[in-house]
Amino acid sequence: AVAVIAMRDIAQQPVQWVGGGFVADAVVARRGNAGVCIAVPASARKAEENLASTPIAELDLGALPATVLASGADAVATFAAGLEEWKLLMSAALSGLSFEALKMAAAYSGERKAFGVFIGTFQAISHPMADLICEIDGGKFLAWKAIRSIADGEKDAAGQVSLAAWWTAITAARTVNHALHSFGGIGLTVEHDIHLYNLRAKAWPLVGGDPDEWLNEAGRRLYGNEAASLPDVGDLPIEFALGEEARAVQKEIHEFFAANVTDEQREKFHYSWEGHNPDIHKALVKANLAYLQLPKDVGGRGLNPYAVTAARDAFEDEGWNNPVAGVAQMVALIMHRFGSDELKRDVLSKVMSGEAICSLGYSEPGCGSDVFAAQCKATQLEDGSWRIDGTKMWTSGANLTDYVLMLTRTDPDAAKHKGLTMFIVPLKAEGVTIQAVHTFMDERTNITFYDGVKIPDSWRLGEINGGGRTMAASLELEHGGGFAKVQRAMLEEAVELCGEIPAAGGKLIDAPRAQARLARTYANYLASELIAYRANWTQVEKKGNGAYGPMAKMFSSEKFTTDSRDLLDLTAPYSLSKRKGPARAINQAYRHAHGTTIYGGTSEVHRSMIAEKGLGLPRSRG
């Protein structure tokens, strides 16, 4: 016998649409303070054409015989928990449906040609797919996290259930729309299965009503203290805790800052290079807390990726989130792997002791993210030394650092990705000019000019014309961290500010519209964090490269940007102020977010990587 569930109290709505109602022998429903089982004879079921040709039916449940299963508060709670379980199951189903539809579209886009090329090479096709695979995975992880949170008794569990249902319903609708569009006219026909995915992506969740109501519900649960009854999820293989090593290093970091950092020093912290404090950096090096990712054979802490992620969160909590140590350990790794004994003695030793710090000299005025188009020239002289001539752009920190890791053109006649060589160049050398470039993000970067700067051959890294291979070594330190930590910090500031801003009948935090928008930001932050965790996990477990690092970076930076804009709107006009407090933090987050979509390669570059490595689409750039 088939038994299904009615979504609404039949004491208030006896006639209602029921999923599977046309094939159901029984419907379990709530009637006031009781849970009942309603026998549904064939005569009460009526076939009716509907959007996706599913066995949905409108039933008059109040007119059918019912058996009371239980009554009272426990019965109501048990029924409510059943509805929450339906949301979780629906979230998983919609994630699977979305993923299959996207895979079908990606495969077709790698086979179908238009204008003489595969349509998957068109970024108008591939880039939305890159966005969607991130959204799909994010929804899946939100559902998993909700289940784990229920098991752990976390206070946010109920809100996470609502968010998983809302997220996957919205994502499924967007995914099947783009997938069908990728098929073109054939997708409109009943001859191709993609139309079934399109219709069912909408029909399945709508049995529960308007999906946006789940976002409103999440807002009330997270920020309005609305309680919910949740199901028993049983034993779980899913785990999101980062482990004992992660907890230990977080404790160590917090104890360090409590013992070594003054309030006056904290006032000058900033997420950019301008937040660097040489004394604190040296103290962190001495405490073995600066180069956490760097392998032990180089002199670093050699933490696992989970612990590194946890450490970044702890540094963010302390406000110490400038890039100095991260860049220094990247340069140190390359010097250790490819540098001469002389370079290790004269430069690497200073970096590892905290006496020197480094910048990156990849980008140039005409190149941007296309670092392999570098034209800054290195010419070998008769005595074997090198002369550097050219310009580098976005050399952030050059006004503070001692050395720059530079990618140069050593063979102008070689192919674009060849003929490149890497060097360590001293920024205090004769012929180096540093010109400030200030951004609206309260961040200074620089143009650096090199006019006949001479360096010994011993400061070359790797083989001549082998710069691409040398630079690849730095990718060992990329764990797909993303920007979840700054998203979380922004959300916390927004919650605080909404609790201060007066509104009709109380504070802004009490308004349903504010709660829903904060809940959406919460979902975006949490999905960003979980996608980054997946990048960590795949590295630890050696699961291969599905572009998980680029997914974490691109997805989180884009969500950071849209949410910072929305929270600036939500808290206006208070958010316009730069006065000390949460308003200034949201103001700064809005300005900071724009840079995150550009740092380390633009979102467009990462979308191409995701489309190619994550979805198998053909290469979309030269």
Question: What's the gist of this structure?
Answer:
Helix content is 47%, strand content 14%. It has a four-stranded mixed sheet. It has a four-stranded mixed sheet with strand order 9-12-13-16. The chain has a four-stranded antiparallel sheet with strand order 10-11-15-14, with no helix packed on it. 45% of the residues are buried.
Task: Please work out how many helical segments DSSP would assign.
Answer: 17
- Note the overall shape: elongated
Mean pLDDT: 94
User: Rg, please?
Assistant: 28 Å
DSSP strand count = 18
* Low-pLDDT windows of residues: none
Name the descriptors.
622 residues; four-stranded mixed sheet; alpha+beta
Detail the topology: elements first, then pairings.
Elements: E1 3-5, E2 15-18, E3 26-31, E4 34-39, E5 57-60, E6 66-71, H1 73-109, E7 113-114, E8 117-118, H2 123-152, H3 157-183, H4 194-206, H5 212-223, H6 244-260, H7 263-266, H8 278-286, H9 305-318, H10 324-338, H11 341-353, E9 358-361, E10 377-380, E11 386-392, E12 403-409, E13 420-426, E14 432-438, E15 444-455, E16 460-461, H12 467-472, H13 484-498, E17 502-503, E18 506-507, H14 512-540, H15 548-570, H16 582-596, H17 603-615
Parallel strand pairs: 1-3, 9-12
Antiparallel strand pairs: 2-5, 3-4, 4-6, 7-8, 10-11, 11-15, 12-13, 13-16, 14-15, 17-18
Helix pairs in contact: 1-2, 1-3, 1-4, 2-3, 2-14, 2-17, 3-4, 3-5, 5-14, 6-9, 10-11, 13-14, 13-15, 13-16, 14-15, 15-16, 15-17
